[in-house]
């Protein structure tokens, strides 16, 4: 019996040892699984964790009756939203846009039979509702629920599946987004928390780079990233009005674009296609910044010189009009920076805008009725008050000219067609993006001649004066960075004349004339302010003859500030409270945007 008991005891010891070995082995396997987690899996967890935290604080916001607690929960929800921004804005652009839309009525006009009028929601709407002088908790809760539902939809339908080059794309987009809209106060209209929120997003960039740390073959490069982001965050720790945005872009944004190019080389990556920005950009203010074909219906690496030359000839060709008296250059004179200098152009009802940088838009005419430069040319040719012609006549005229016929064979490898004629003219217009102004050359480090007044003016333009929340750098027009899919329209309340005591709204109804949408009355496209010192008079009706008058209009709060009743004015009606020196500084900056052409 003792022998049997001894055998059983040994057996028990054996099985206990086996169990321990098995358990330790399993733990090691589990540990191995954790270690082998891919960077994408780690990023997904990080992203969804912050989405969840934003949702939790929105939950708390929707049930509190205490204003201070509501304020706290809103700021926390917004914080985690901003941490998610680099990824969310890249992988789900439409939902990001919806969650971060301004507090203005949204009108979607597909055609005359499909017009949708939507009430806004999202974080900007929450901010304005929370701090409204007529604060209404029921309204706040309603907006909060809509925002939470949309963010919850994002959370439940997020499956990140991108390549390594997507990581660099989303980082580049966020760096540009912060520089072009983030630090301007574009999406923090009341609290002006843009700088603090930019810190949240830069921390997210740093976290993403850390997660992908093993992709770096150069330790020096990742150390450079860490040091640069630390310096960036330190400089962002400033107040909104005194922040030096000029230096931030020149010494941080552009530095980070260089680091991105170094990282692309280090990771041995190639990008499969171009988006709005060209690959390998090191500046946001260069004639190499934009992929012009992104704004066109055709794809090309560069604009063919022979096509530009042909387009320039056709641009000045009066024979394209019915009575041989009008060309494109009639209203867009090069010596007047492609305007005509008149309040209202001859034969039409609006001021002639500059064609410089017009290629960097998604919509054309003051009322956005054309979707391409080629489409705009059709409207000009067929307008009885302009060319008073048609495409067939235009094609016949050019086909009868032997010189043109030979050029078209050389440039297009084809005969003359109205499509090619329009494309040639459009190509010439697309070439008019010089980016060689005094401001461009200074912010790119080519020269060092920008005055203190010009720098202060830029910082005002992109800060206190809020100009850059509609005129987005670097194009300084209304095409929204960083996706550049939409050219915005605004209702600012342009008056009929300069009378500031008994101001009357100009009678031109703008976008309303396209689809008769009542809520779009008096909406006009936001034009560029580049070369504005050379393109007076100003506004769609040429009402103002000096930049000082223009700034005074905005300083008063637009049409509403002049006493005009406007239900849907998109320009904030609050006075800017700019003093005389600040107005002079703004003018100095805008004058520095003059190109050599």
Structural overview:
It is found in: Cell envelope. It contains 22 helices and four strands. With 597 residues, it is mostly helical. The chain folds into four domains: 122 residues; 131 residues; 128 residues, Cytochrome Bc1 Complex, Chain D, domain 2 (Orthogonal Bundle), CATH 1.10.760; 154 residues, Cytochrome Bc1 Complex, Chain D, domain 2 (Orthogonal Bundle), CATH 1.10.760. A two-stranded antiparallel ribbon has the order 1-2. A two-stranded antiparallel sheet has the order 3-4. α9 packs antiparallel against α10, α11 crosses α16 and α18 crosses α22. The radius of gyration is 29 Å and the shape is globular.
Low-confidence runs of at least 5 consecutive residues: 1-8, 13-34
Q: Compute the number of helices.
A: 22
Oligomer: single chain
Q: Identify the overall geometry.
A: globular
Main β sheet profile? 2 strands, antiparallel
What pattern of helices and strands is seen along the backbone? HHHHEEHHHHHHHHHHHHHHEHEHHH
* Major sheet strand order: 1-2
- Which class best fits the helix and strand makeup? mainly alpha
Give the amount of beta strand, in percent: under 5%
Rg result: 29 Å
Give the tally of structural domains: 4
Termini, distance in Å? 109 Å
Named CATH architecture of the largest domain:
Orthogonal Bundle
**Mean pLDDT across all amino acids:** 94
CATH homologous superfamily classification of the largest domain: Cytochrome c-like domain
Could you say what the CATH topology of the largest domain is called? Answer: Cytochrome Bc1 Complex, Chain D, domain 2
Helix content range? 40-55%
Number of strands: 4
CATH class of the largest domain: Mainly Alpha
Subcellular location: Cell envelope
Pfam families: CCP_MauG
Organism: Aestuariibaculum sediminum
Protein name: Methylamine utilization protein
